[in-house]
Amino acid sequence: MNTEYVTGPKLLEREGRLASQQESKPTRKKRDPVLAAAAVFGAVFFVFCLVQMNFDYSLLMHGTGKLFSLLGQMFPPNAADWNYVLAAALESLEIALVGTALAVVLAFFLSFAAAANVSPRTAWAVKGAASLIRAIPTLVWALLYIVAVGMGPLPGILAIGTHAVGMLVKMFAQSIEEVNPGVIEALEATGAGKLQIIAQGILPSVATSFVAWSVFRLEIDIGESTILGAVGAGGIGFEIANAMRMYEFDKTFFAALVIFVMVFSVEWLSNRMKLNVK
Q1: In this model, does residue 240 exceed pLDDT 50?
Q2: pTM score of the predicted model
């Protein structure tokens, strides 16, 4: 076996080549000045907010003690009016379910008009409208609908459905835009129309994401339906508001446990659905 020893000019040539390779290595990426400035501004503004709002920390300490005293009054939970509480909880669940279902159906169709890779001409307008709807809180929508159609479960359904559309259109459209472009290009190459591309290329790719976002929104809407009841939109929130006004904290805690069971049940069902879809 012949071994070649590198000496003299060859050694210098190799060292020069290695040095040039080291110099050609990518340099460390510089920090984005905009992000750095935003981080500094956020920290400074946070301190400014603490000073500007003038917190009374002694009152906060005193209120913490009262909070623990109030929590002690909630035990044990009082289920004497369980029939009224369960009926109100069922109404809240119905409000959340109907409102979310209407929002899912409407957002499903609007999301294709909001996706830039499917409808580039209308995407900006639909996304802008969804952002406007989403920026208005559900509680404000409920107050508007109460004035329009009166008190009861109907304004709660409309308020939840309206706000949910604003969120789901954004989430659904983002899922559509994340579809592999190669799938769409392959179908276009075969001469498939837009409906065929959506049905055979996009929907199979986003079905799991659509289900996950819909169930997640239902969890949110169950919680929001309880809040809407406090302003006259029906549901268990009305029972909680009455119990709080009467200082019946043990009944309030029982109603809170019922809400927890509802939300936990929806989350458990959503996890089962994800497993079945996969």
Answers
A1: yes
A2: 0.74
